[in-house]
């Protein structure tokens, strides 16, 4: 893999909130994604994260209906036919003394990039209904939902744009493209020694 390959992969791995209907993601494909994640770094190598994969259409619908989609956008809702095809739920096993948020960041990016390589788009969601997850999946008290990742095939255009007036909130433009402002390398690299 070259620098250009990873640059293009990361740049094309955008959060999407509108998915094509009728796309099936298999349990095997999700297990393969989790298999990649199982080999990532973990603080103190404690590996406190656990995962649930969801392809059952009724459960996907239930989870989707209880998520806050695109909180920065006014007058926008995800239509039922735009819901994702699957979810991965990231969980923390509190019986393991780890740094779950450190591990979660590594796992999240690994999941998003691996899904993209497999041809799927995604959207990480801290707004999943954690209590609903606890109930639906009959989680014991020591297993805590952290976030969900919606997966499917995008049916919207997502573009990276320049930050204007220090406003990093995403928005929809006049063509209904989802615009994601990003700071430039020169804005985030503050010193070189």
List the SSEs and their pairings.
Elements: H1 3-12, H2 27-37, E1 49-54, H3 57-65, E2 86-93, H4 100-117, E3 121-125, H5 130-136, E4 143-152, E5 158-162, E6 171-172, E7 178-182, H6 185-188
Parallel strand pairs: 5-7
Antiparallel strand pairs: 1-2, 2-4, 3-4, 6-7
Please give a handful of descriptors for the protein shown.
single chain, about 190 residues, alpha+beta, NADH Oxidase, putative fmn-dependent nitroreductase like fold, 2 domains, four-stranded antiparallel beta sheet, three-stranded mixed beta sheet, 6 helices, about 30% helix, about 20% strand
Describe the structure.
The chain is of the alpha+beta class and 193 residues long. It folds into two domains: 3-156, 3-Layer(aba) Sandwich (NADH Oxidase), CATH 3.40.109; 157-193, putative fmn-dependent nitroreductase like domains (putative fmn-dependent nitroreductase like fold, Single Sheet), CATH 2.20.180.10. Helix content is 31%, strand content 21%. A four-stranded antiparallel β-sheet has the order 1-2-4-3, with helices on both faces. Strands 5-7-6 form a three-stranded mixed β-sheet, with no helix packed on it. Strand 6 (171-172) and strand 7 form a beta hairpin. Helix 2 (27-37) packs across helix 4 (100-117). The chain starts with a helix and ends in a 5-residue tail after the last helix. The mean pLDDT is 95.
